[in-house]
Amino acid sequence: MEELRVTGGGHLGPIDSSRIPRYAGAATFARLPRLDQVDRADIAVVGVPFDSGVSYRPGARFGGNHIREASRLLRPYNPALDVSPFERVQVADAGDMAVNPFNINEAIETVQQNALDLTADGARLVTLGGDHTIALPLLRAAAERAGSPVAMLHFDAHLDTWDTYFGAEYTHGTPFRRAVEEGILDTEAISHVGTRGPLYGVRDLEDDRRFGFGIVTSSDVYRQGVDEVVDKLRQRIGDRPLYVSVDIDVLDPAHAPGTGTPEAGGITSRELLEILRGLRGLNLVGADVVEVAPAYDHAELTGVAASHVAYDLVTLMADTLTPAAAPMTEEK
Questions:
Q1: How far apart are CA 198 and CA 22, in angstroms?
Q2: DSSP string, 221-272
Q3: From CA 87, how far away is CA 76, in angstroms rounded?
Q4: Beta 11-15 vs 5-8: how paired, if at all?
Q5: What secondary structure does DSSP assign to 157-187, as a single string?
Q6: For residues 242 and 247, what is the distance between their CA atoms, to the nearest angstrom?
Q7: Among 248, 242, 260, which residue's Cα sits nearest to residue 290?
Q8: CA count, 13 A, side-chain hemisphere, 320
Q9: Segment 17-63, tens digit of pLDDT
């Protein structure tokens, strides 16, 4: 089947859904070209089908392709930010990293090297997980490319700064403790957003504060409102290189049931998107969307939410890059 694509600004865009139905053909993210179909990508979307670090329900290894399927309905113009990201820069789907499902240490090394390879020419990376273990090697690569520790906003129901599970140092609940220990995070500019639910003890919070994390709970978002939360986050981040990590369980299970460790009382998909949009203009150097487990997702609720989160992250990145000159053909 011939790929009839929307083009503009000298960039190859998504398949034209006014000429080829959205449900037809291969599912790349937002129906964008594959990386091997373009000379280079300014932003690459890549999947990491890995969930060997989970502590409760497995299945996030299938999350990347579930997000891709849900992203078929995305369109090339983002009115919330008044940006056509696929016209402004070249965005492409880099496929999936092939990681060892039986060896976490090897998988982490593979993700880190693949991330470095994909960003070797200056491209920025949006990663579709996969469980949250993969954030550690992605942060390592981001810090190496930035040449310094990076700021981070971590959207999650959980802190993910625990020490070990069953003696294992590398799991989906430990990546940010390891990242602080390794010195790849700027501890004056890191924060959790959307945390909630029971903890093992008060020491979890004490350790977290000691590492330098600020905390914006889901209750804070509800009581203070999006604008106040965004203002606090922007003050904390400043102009530092920023990495954004989104565990989809930051959303209430009503909005994202398809995840491994759901917690009641989360933020809405609208609140999450508005907070992300409030980061416009910051130096976003990398991002991930993780912990989508399609086996628990009915009516694609989680996949749709995750696809829009990834789309807004791509848009935020594109917005800070050099705009293209030519208009993109309008798609219905």
A1: 42
A2: HHHH-HHHHHHHHHHHHTTS-EEEEEEGGGB-TTT---SSS--SS-B-HHHH
A3: 8
A4: antiparallel
A5: SS----S-BTTBSSSTTSHHHHHHHHT-EEE
A6: 16
A7: 248
A8: 20
A9: 989 999 998 899 999 999 999 999 999 999 999 999 999 999 999 99
| Single-letter residue type at 284 | L
Q: Reply yes or no: is the peptide bond before residue 13 cis, omega within 30 of 0.
A: no
Give the integer Cα–Cα distance in Å for 224 and 246: 21
- Joined together, the tokens standing for residue 204 give 């979890």
Is 255 within 8 Å of 268 (Cβ atoms)? yes
Q: How far apart are CA 248 and CA 267, in angstroms?
A: 10
The 3 state secondary structure assigned to 39-61 is CCCCEEEEEECCCCCCCCCCCHH
Residue 273's identity, in one-letter code, is L
pLDDT digits (tens, 9 = 90+) for 237-250: 999 999 999 999 99
The token pair that represents 10 in the structure block: 């000298």
Give Cβ neighbours of residue 136 (< 8 Å, ≥ 6 apart).
108, 170, 175, 176, 178, 179
User: What is the spatial order of strands in the sheet that 185-195 belongs to?
Assistant: 91-96, 43-48, 124-129, 284-290, 242-247, 150-155, 185-195, 214-217
Structure token digits, residue 212: 């330098």
For residue 188 the two structure tokens come to 């004056």
- By DSSP bridging, strand 185-195 and strand 214-217 are parallel
Token pair recorded at residue 17: 């859904």
Q: Which neighbouring-strand residues pair with 214?
A: 191
**Beta bridge partner(s), residue 215:** 192
The residue whose two tokens read 């990386």 is 35
* pLDDT value, residue 3: 82
Burial environment of residue 122 by CB neighbours within 10 A (0 to 12, 13 to 18, 19 or more): exposed
pTM: 0.95
